Amino acid sequence: MTNKPDFNNVFSPPDEVEAVVLDLQISPTGHIHLGHIAGHSSLSPLEVTGITKAFERGSGDGLLHLLTVKRASELLPPSLVFGYQLAHLFMRGLCAVPNLASQWDHVEIALPVLELQQRVVTAPPMVGAEYLDIPRLTMIWLDLQTAARTEIAATQGDVQAWLQCKHPSWNLIGRVCFHLAENKNHEQAPFAFLATYAAGVSQQSRVQYQPLRQALQEYAGAGNHDMLLRLLQPVNKAAEQSPWIKSLLDSGTLFHPIAWTPAKAHQFLRHIPIFESCGIVVRIPDWWQVRQPPRPQVKVNIGNSVAGLGLNAMLDFDVSLSLDGEEISLAEWKQLLTMSDGLVQLKGRWIELDRKKLESVLEHWKKVQRDAANGNISFIDGMRLLAGAAVEGKSEVALLPDAADWSNVVAGNGLQQALEGLRDPHNIADDLHLGDELQVQLRPYQKEGVRWLWLLNRLGLGGCLADDMGLGKTVQILALLLLAKREGDVKPHLLVLPTSLIGNWQSEITRFAPGLSILIAHPSAIPSEALNTLPAECLENVDVVITSYGSLIRLPWLLQTSWSLVVLDEAQAIKNPTAYQTKAAKALKSRVRFVLTGTPVENRLGDLWSLFDFICPGLLGSSKAFSLFIRRLAQDKQQGYAPLRNLVKPYILRRMKSDKRIIADLPDKTEVKTYCVLSRLQASLYGQAIATLVQQIDKVEGIARRGLVLAFLMRFKQICNHPSQWLGDEAYLENNSGKFVRLRELAQDIAARQEKVLVFTQFKEMTAPLAAFLQDIFGCAGLQLHGGIAVKTRKALVDKFQQETGPPFFVLSIKAGGTGLNLTAASHVIHFDRWWNPAVENQATDRAYRIGQKKNVLVHKFICRGTIEERIDTMIENKIGLSNDLLAGGGETLLTEMSNEALLKLVSLDINSTVAEEK
After folding, report:
1. Which of 41, 856, 885, 895 allows an S-S link to 19, with CB 3.0 to 4.6 Å?
2. Which residues lie across from 353 on neighbouring strands?
3. Count of domains forming the chain
């Protein structure tokens, strides 16, 4: 048994039962889909079935159905609560439309942009949360509007019946409006109240409001009693919750204009949430914000002067009083102490005052300041306080009653300048010039990424570069390492990678940063015996040491060395806090730590904690403290998850290919070589095949020799794909194939991004094993196409794949699917094995990269290092004796003309560069 915290399930009360939980997912195109996650469920099977069927009809139908779930905010998981809140917001706008019953089929519900922006900030972790923005929320809003019209039409336009069917509390409401205005000519009663109702719409389509008392006259006639009750229903509902409004209603005062004292006006303002929840429209002066009323606050200023940062830095800490950021003088403070609580005027404006709460919060912050070391506060506590994230330590002061409402924590000038650059690299002024050191032209967003990394490095802070796959995380890190070398950072740097990526990084460094001296601390480059006892002087002239996660466990000197920069690629490898390689990575000694990942981490709480426990140890507290913190966020109806997002934002740089600025800066198609290492079984079979070929090649000539060579070329390809393809044992175990291991790493990133992929192979028999393997990764079935599938079914397969909710992957044989298909739903193409003919591969790639494709297409070409695959790729790349047309027909026929010596050199195995380490 382990004590690993399950942060993804911290929201569940202990009395719930294990089940498959419904989960909302935001698609890249801006639609909401229903998914499933493992966890605990409070919903009954009948409720689960109802929600599932509603979402099957459409996302708008599903969201509206959530309104029918009783105690939705208590029973639904956080992602569905988010959907419920969107639907509730829409219904509030819909029901506020005058004459809705007569114009439901063409009414346009205005988008509440400010409230939706708040929903983005407070949204819970959920699949696709990184796609939440106003354009995509607009799409969801339109889905809701379409669903509402369709459902109302099904009731023959009976809006009232539809609302009652949705929920008994919904009604044709919103026609009553409470107005509060300033009455500046009356010193004792400086406010005026009037209740009105929407009597109709003018020719200019403006709502015409009349005093509510006129409704009593309008509906006084016989037969109008029900209409009057319906009109006043929101008021009656409010009276049930508020004795104060009930007294106004019972006395009839509500139906007349009223002059109010500040105390009465304040009482009204505090009741606004009740009025709006009951469907009453409220019109008030713009200086009052319901969630953030104007009030004096304790201003806590952190980091006004910053000599240097880092996790161990101490920040200056100052406490004062302010109003809207402007400091309150001692004379003004004394003036406030003489005033009564409620609405008061200060600096010529109305504000809310509660002296007892304000004095209590002020005294508390002063105590925190006195208790701080020399009047300073730790960097970590300071960052938590700024984010409003009460994780543990001094940040727990945010849990004090009224602390958040009556205080305002801000970054001082020095700290603010640094945070502005970290939160948005566009604000970083440094113009870094690499000259010829980096032999590639960085794109604008990549230059911003390097500036961001360099700023973190200078500040002594860690970070997570989480750009989408294909945006060039590797080249940005190489630029950072070159800058560090130029600035005289003499300590070596450490790159920790999955074994499958060592070849990729080695190739990229050779190509783009040849000025970096590297040492590969891995058995593929240095024998294990020598690696275990590598002398320290071997690192003296090395800029970068490259190793694997597995080697961190096997080579103690990696943990004993003091590194300058440590970079973890594919950082999902340390998402499990209890894994040996995670513990080893976190034991590394370094000045600054960075991680690279192409998957969103902000929305996977367990991964997020473990990653930050590496890059910024202590920022998110202990695992136990973080778990409690997440529980509190889940229960916070106002701030939601905003404190967590604010806390981690400076240390995560995430750019997506869907960003219009990024799209404009990208080529339409990007091709990358994906190097794979052979498993020990693959290497053994490959070596045996070479030995057999050596024995037989000299014994045959002519056609027999050609047949022998072709047979062995096919055998080498099959072994590189998977031993089971050559052995015919149908086992297809993942760890027996380096290509399968790399395919999982790629597919997991693609699945996390909700993107689609085409996988091409030249072998019909490989399509089924690949499809089964990918089904396990994506969690759903995909599609297959090969020569054995009837031609008449091809269109149906293509149509299914092209649907947004269609299968996420399509495995195709290159002969059957390499031409004639339109598969633009895919943004990734994987050539699992090579045809050795660029023209044929390009034709297959063009199934996705063609007219109608609106996304950047990323093409991955799998190559087993140290094998015939790498040598053929080098020949094609360098055009040594080959051209795009030279290998037509698959390429094998031409290779049969090679001499025995040239052929054996071509197929030979470089064991030091290809064999994966043991798990």
Report:
1. 41
2. 342
3. 5
**Measured distance CA(69)–CA(52) in Å, rounded:** 13
Structure-token pair, residue 854:
């609106």
Distance CA 727, CA 195 (A): 84
Whether 522 and 593 map to the same domain: the answer is yes
536-546 confidence digits (pLDDT tens): 888 988 999 99
- Asked whether residue 305 falls in the same domain as residue 330, the answer is yes
**Average of pLDDT values for 553-579?**
93
Q: Where are the beta strands (DSSP E) in 438-531?
A: 463-465, 493-497, 518-521
Q: How large is the C-alpha radius of gyration of the chain?
A: 33
> What is the spatial distance between Cα 595 and Cα 461, in angstroms, rounded to a whole number?
12
- Token digits for 911? 């064991």
The residue among 166, 191, 208 that closes a domain is: 166
Closest CA to 614 of 561, 568, 659: 568
Q: Pairing relation of β-strands 828-831 and 757-761?
A: parallel
Q: Of 626, 637, 703, 567, nearest to 291 (Cα)?
A: 637
Backbone dihedral angles phi then psi of residue 79, each to the nearest 5 degrees: -65, -35
pLDDT digits 0-9 by tens, 318-360: 888 888 878 888 888 888 888 888 999 988 889 999 988 888 8
* 549 and 570 fall within a common domain: yes
Give the pLDDT of residue 766: 97
What mean pLDDT comes out for the span 429-434? 75
Residue range(s) defining the domain that contains residue 742: 669-913
Q: Within this chain, do residues 463 and 573 fall inside the same structural domain, yes or no?
A: yes
In this structure, the answer to whether residues 349 and 446 fall within a common structural domain is no
Residue 182 has pLDDT above 70, yes or no: yes
pLDDT in tens, 201-232: 555 545 677 898 888 887 776 567 777 887 88
Q: Which residues contact 433 (CB under 8 A, 6 or more apart)?
A: none
Residues 92 and 130 in one domain: yes
Burial class of residue 542 (count of CB atoms within 10 Å of its CB; 0-12, 13-18, 19+):
middle
C-beta separation of 10 from 110 below 8 A: no
Confidence band, pLDDT 50/70/90 cuts, at residue 373: low
SS3 labels along 595-634: EECCCCCCCCHHHHHHHHHHHCCCCCCCHHHHHHHHHHHH
CA distance 367 to 375: 10
DSSP string across 427-461: G-------TTSS-SPPPHHHHHHHHHHHHHHHHT-
Q: What's the mean per-residue pLDDT of the chain?
A: 86
> What is the pLDDT, as a whole number, of residue 478?
96
Q: Please state which of the ranges 433-447, 660-674, 811-825, 904-918 shows the lowest mean pLDDT.
A: 904-918
Distance CA 321, CA 328 (A): 5
Same domain? 542 vs 646: yes
Give the mean pLDDT of 303-327. Answer: 80
Boundary (domain end) residue, out of 387, 420, 453: 420
What's the CA angle centered on 731, arms 727 and 736, to 5 degrees?
A: 80
The model's confidence at residue 396, banded by pLDDT at 50, 70 and 90, is low
Residue 289 lies in a domain: no
State what percent of residues in the chain have pLDDT above 90.
Answer: 42
| pLDDT of 80 higher than 50 | yes
209 DSSP β-pair partners: 198
Please check whether residue 290 lies inside any domain of the structure.
no
Q: Is 171 inside any structural domain? A: no
CA distance 828 to 860: 8
Residue located via tokens 């006259």: 217
The verdict on residue 194 lying in a domain is: yes
Average pLDDT over residues 138-148: 93
**Same domain, yes or no, for 657 and 676?**
no
| pLDDT for residue 207 | 61
Phi, psi of 610 (to 5 degrees): -65, -40
- Residue listed under structure tokens 């072994």: 719
Closest CA to 24 of 89, 76, 73: 76
